[in-house]
Amino acid sequence: MATSRAVPNLAFRRLRGQRSPGEFAAAVRRAAREIGEQVACDARYIGRVESGEIRCPNYAYERVFLHMFPGLSLTDLGFVAREHVRGRGARAAVAAAPAPEITTRNDEESDVLRRAFMTGGTATVAAASLGIGGLGPIPAPRAGDRFGEAEVNAVEEAVRRIRLLDDRHGADGLYRKAAEPLRAAYALLDSGRATRQSTADRMHAGTGELALSVGWLAHDSGRLEDARSHYAEALATARVAGDPALEAHAFSNTSFLARDAGKYREAVRAAQAGQRAGKHLSSARLLALLTLREAGGWAGLGDRAACEEALGRAHTLFGRGPCDADPEWMSFFGEPEVEALEAQCWSALGDWARAARHAHRATVLSSSHFARNLALYRAQLAADLARGGRLEEAAAAGERVLDLLGEVRSSRIRAMLTETVRLLAPHHGTPPVAAFLDRRATLGA
Q: Which InterPro entries match (predicted)?
């Protein structure tokens, strides 16, 4: 019996119409934001759908597609009904075929596995929930072993899942679990051989992005030295692979980390290096982020003129709008993040009123569905209001941070909240301040 081949999804292709795959991917991302979903859709994903490689989308994409095309079902969109790729129907098909169909497994963001990732305590559960290694960790490959599309897809899916879970929940519960698939990915690179050069390039890029994602989890959970190591690992991978996009991303994260560690000159240098790496990538949004990183470094050094100049460049670049060349990992970088990064600059320069205005805008523009970022922006606002002597407003903003801490686990956010508590503690006699401080103490936040 011959293995079934992918059947092109002509219905989905017709729905795309005259739009390019990149333009259609951008429309998918916009539709996702409208319903509070987050999908890392790009032109390559659209191509995989239209080629029939993705027979049935994961649940997040399903919700987005049905929102975009009301009244149509998955089968109307050209997909195979879910019961035919999962459950008893899927198991029967696998049993009958000489080679299992793995695409749906790699693309399916299983709600069961997501819950396991959030609550499970073993490396086996972590690897499974990240979509790597089937039901357990990947065994260390032997020298000369080959890796192909399945392994690369698994690494890329791990990156997407980490980003999704971090956006919704923060880093503290994820870091240790996410390190296991990263070790497995590097083991494949170190000991295995790709079936073709394009696969090797994707594996290098995917592993580097995975290192950055794990490094960010370390960064956000207060493990700065671990984060530095992961970022350096990603940068080395980028250099070996000759991948300027990965290099720019690594420098962006390195600059961010250096600023948080108080190494402001290093933050400036890393951001400028990222701009050099990214200048030929045709993404104004990428350069805008790197320029904001540079501005943050100048602010930490107390150089207001250089900071303002960098902020001006960043706003000009951001104003050019999104494009198909924007990296997939930059889905977080919208107006709320721009406002928050500028707020951090003014805060570092001691302009508390201006910092609070930008932090407030970040909270207003942010979607409530992305609890981690909203909590971060509110924590920034509370601290800036407290430093500016606006005590009751700071307490109210702090209360709103506490509202989110049940679902967000981020040491960085808790550290910001602790600073606000320190600033407000001498004013316990003010009733709103007292209510906030007492609630925070009760929650142990």
A: TPR-like_helical_dom_sf (IPR011990)
